[in-house]
Specification:
Elements (H helix, E strand, L loop, with lengths): L1 H25 L3 H11 L5 E2 L7 E3 L4 E4 L4 E2 L7 E5 L5 E3 L2 E4 L5 E10 L5 E11 L1 E7 L5 H13 L2 E7 L6 H14 L9 E5 L4 H11 L3 H7 L4 E5 L4 H15 L3 E5 L4 H6 L3 H11 L3 E4 L10 H11 L4 H24 L7 H13 L1 H22 L6 H26 L2 H4 L4 H20 L1 H22 L2 H9 L4 H12 L6 H6 L1 H9 L1
Parallel strand pairs: 2-9, 10-11, 10-12, 12-13, 13-14
Antiparallel strand pairs: 1-4, 3-7, 5-6, 5-8, 8-9, 14-15
């Protein structure tokens, strides 16, 4: 009897231990399960493939698909086992799972057949609690952005970066960023906050242009309810005028203008109210733009500029138009006060606009190539004694072939700045080459070269002034400053003193008169 009781007790204990071991295996950490599976991994004919999103928000379901998994034996019945990295597992060719906590998880798929052969595939999943979109062209701050992205990930915040770091020209950066945003237009609505960190007012104009490029039914929905944060080192008061037009166009919850120091508080803050409170606590400058902000009487032209932006006038066109009074004023100064040759106002202005469109490096390269081949064409045609108009037609034809060769080289080398050449180099080709050849005919090559170098110098000076982001933001925010340049040109028009170059040219006469 005692033996029977002892045997029964032993069986109960054995059953309990077995049950405990099975239960423990079911709740074992995924790392331990994976290590056990890896030891049994076979190099057989099975291929495990995981298809899923790599980024997901906490609490949202994510679908894991193993339908691309396969076996060389078409008669195999495959079993699919999922380990989600948080202690959970599931079975089947498709699994749906959600994560309760933010962090990095490694999902493991084990595919087995009836013979025990298996294969393993893994996928990394980042689970976040909050997210924001960062639009930037700050190539100088690339390291800081990498640090910010890593810090945001540690805090369970997903930062999607849309950037252009070529830094060739603001004009081209705006086009590149706009194209990238248009490609991901459907996902912009998923972000809680949109952060813009660009030079000058480029970011604000990009948002306006993006909203104008969609249908009226979608226009209010792209940024509707979003908080827009604009990072800039420009005067926030000037940006506020531009942001008012952007606000009416894209209809966000609000636009907050602030400095780069606000990026880290944005990651730490749970809500936008906490973010603003943190800015106050840290003493970071900011301005909030909403429907209550208006434009004063002294800033009347800003109303018309913002109205044009709302109606779809490209912001890049408005910037160029507003910079023309500054460019022509600089040209007038170099001509009337300094005494340099400019070949009028039109030629240096169009060269400057070409430099702005293409960037100074590529613009100067194209200009030099046009002048070089235009000169070589004139030399080759000189011995044929052709009439002026047909000869110039041949020169311009050769220059056109030169432009095509530059485009071909840009396409072959995948240089976007050369591929996206606009109409400006064509204008240079049709005007500057003819002027250059005409000057060579009348004054000789040396005099023509000196004149062209002076023109290029003036155009380069205009380019750097016109590309000054502070000035561009100021002109777009206060377009009535055009009246100031009208006054400056009236003053230059009444200039009766000697030019700076004349002091150098007539220095011997001045020296002789002083001796007398």
């Amino acid at each position: 009897m005692r033996k029977i009781i002892a045997l029964l007790v032993l069986q109960v204990i054995t059953f309990f231990l077995l049950g405990f071991s099975v239960s423990y295996a079911d709740e074992a950490p995924v790392d331990e399960v994976v290590s056990e599976v890896t030891e049994e991994e076979s190099s057989g004919p099975i291929s495990a493939v995981v298809i899923s999103d790599s980024v997901v928000m906490t609490g949202r379901n994510i679908i894991f698909d193993a339908s691309e998994s396969s076996s060389e034996n078409i008669d195999d019945e495959l079993n699919y086992e999922w380990h989600f990295g948080d202690g959970s597992r599931d079975y089947g060719v498709e699994a749906v799972h959600s994560y309760d906590e933010a962090g990095d998880y490694q999902v493991t798929l084990v595919v087995r057949n009836q013979d025990g052969e298996q294969d393993i595939s893994t996928a990394s999943i980042f689970v976040y609690e909050r997210t924001f979109l960062l639009i930037t062209d700050s190539s100088e701050e690339a390291d800081k952005l990498d640090t910010l992205s890593s810090y945001a990930k540690e805090q369970g915040v997903y930062m999607n970066l849309v950037g252009d770091f070529d830094g060739v020209s603001e004009f081209l950066s705006e086009e590149v960023l706009l194209q990238k945003l248009q490609e991901s237009l459907s996902t912009i609505k998923e972000y809680d906050t949109v952060v813009v960190w660009t030079s000058g007012s480029t970011g604000l104009t990009i948002l306006s242009t993006l909203a104008q490029g969609v249908s009226e039914s979608e226009q209010g929905g792209i940024f509707s309810g979003n908080d827009i944060i604009v990072i800039s080192d420009q005067a926030l008061g000037t940006l506020q005028n531009i942001a008012q037009g952007t606000f009416r166009t894209i209809q966000p919850s609000q636009i907050i203008l602030t400095r780069s120091e606000a990026l880290w508080p944005l990651v730490d803050a749970g809500t936008i109210a906490d973010f603003i409170a943190d800015l106050d606590l840290r003493g970071v400058t900011y301005k909030v733009v909403n429907s209550s902000v208006g434009i004063g009487v002294t800033n009347f032209m800003s109303y018309f500029v913002n109205y044009m932006l709302e109606k779809g006038v490209p912001s890049s066109s408005l910037k160029l138009i507003l910079m023309i009074p500054i460019i022509v004023t600089i040209v007038a100064f170099f001509k009337q006060v300094v005494g340099l040759e400019t070949l009028g106002v039109y030629i240096p202005t169009i060269i400057t606009l070409s430099f702005i469109a293409l960037g100074i490096e590529f613009g100067a390269f194209i200009l030099l190539m046009i002048l070089l081949f235009g000169t070589l064409s004139r030399i080759l045609l000189k011995k044929y004694r052709l009439l002026y108009i047909p000869r110039m037609a041949i020169v311009l034809t050769i220059v056109s072939v030169t432009i095509l060769a530059i485009l071909l080289a840009g396409a072959y080398l995948n240089i976007s700045q050369l591929v996206s050449i606009s109409i400006f180099p064509m204008l240079i080709m049709s005007t500057l080459v003819e002027n250059f050849v005409t000057i060579q005919t009348g004054k000789g090559f040396r005099s023509a070269l000196i004149i062209m170098l002076e023109v290029i110098f003036v155009s380069t000076a205009c380019y750097y002034v016109a590309e000054w982001s502070v000035l561009k933001t100021l002109m777009l925010g206060h377009p009535e400053l055009i009246l100031v340049f009208l006054a400056i040109n009236i003053f230059l028009g009444r200039w009766t003193g000697l030019r700076f170059t004349e002091y150098a040219r007539f220095r011997e006469i001045f020296k002789y008169s002083e001796e007398e």
